[in-house]
Amino acid sequence: MTIEEALVIIDTALHPESLSDLQELILRHSWEGKSYPEIGEICGYDPNYVKDTGSKLWKLLSKSLGEEISKSNFRTVFRKLAAAESKAVQAQNRQGGQGGQGGQGGDGDENSTP
User: Fold this and answer.
1) Which of 43, 75, 99, 103 would suit a FRET pair with 59, their CA atoms being 20 to 30 Å apart?
2) Are 23 and 53 in contact (CB under 8 A)?
3) Mean pLDDT, to the nearest integer, of 37-47?
């Protein structure tokens, strides 16, 4: 999973809301393993402000996604969410492949009675 894939999941979960620029920067740099002071230095923000914004971000994501999310576990959580989504899509595709033709066969009598 990439940060871009994680952002798609987040955008979908938060819709119609969206992340602020700083929240997205925190996510991107946290994905790379950077600390709040490092993120603050890179992005030109006070480290305490970055930490406070990060804390609010993890709470927002936890509420929106129904999972306990923190700076230390968010990559793992998003990998699990992506895997679950992938399994659901595969199951739906299998159902669609079988169920899409079911009921379409036969001699057509189902639709011919008045």
Assistant:
1) 43
2) yes
3) 98
